[in-house]
Design a protein that fits this description.
51% helix; 124 residues; 7 helices; mainly alpha
Length: 124
C-alpha cells in the first residue's frame, strides 16, 4: 500500500532542494530555516505581488492575524533592493526586423511618434 504525503516529506524535499541549490552559500539561508512555512510565506508574497488584498491573502493562507504582513514587507524589501538603480541602466535598441543593427535609441527618442505609418503609394 502507498502512504500519504505528509508535512515531513515536504519538509525533507524542501531541505534537499535548498541544499542542492546551495542556499547556505549563495543566499545566506541556513538549511535549518527552510521548512514548510517557507511555502506559506512565498505564497503570501506571490499573492501580494499579484495584487490580492490583505484580507484575501489572510483567507487563502489561513492566517489568523496580520503577522504575514511582516513577512511580505521584509521579503519585498529584500526582493526589490537595488531594483530602481538597475532600472536606470541604458539598453541599446536595435531593429533587427527593419535591418538596423546599430543602436538607434537617440533617433527613436528624438523622432516624431505621429509619423505616417501607411505604406507610400509609390511602393504599391
Amino acid at each position: 500500500t502507498q502512504g500519504f504525503v505528509t508535512h515531513v516529506h515536504i519538509s525533507q524535499s524542501l531541505k534537499l532542494a535548498a541544499a542542492a541549490l546551495a542556499y547556505p552559500s549563495r543566499k545566506g539561508i541556513p538549511i535549518e530555516r527552510i521548512d514548510t512555512h517557507s511555502l506559506r510565506i512565498g505564497g503570501a508574497n506571490a499573492l501580494s505581488l499579484s495584487g490580492y488584498s490583505d484580507r484575501q491573502i489572510m483567507k487563502m493562507g489561513r492566517w489568523r492575524s496580520a503577522t504575514f504582513l511582516e513577512y511580505i514587507r521584509e521579503s519585498l524589501d529584500e526582493f526589490s533592493a537595488g531594483m530602481s538603480k538597475s532600472m536606470q541602466r541604458r539598453f541599446e535598441f536595435v531593429n533587427v526586423e527593419g535591418g538596423v543593427f546599430r543602436d538607434i535609441t537617440n533617433v527613436t527618442l528624438n523622432s516624431d511618434y505621429a509619423v505616417n505609418t501607411k505604406p507610400s503609394e509609390a511602393s504599391s
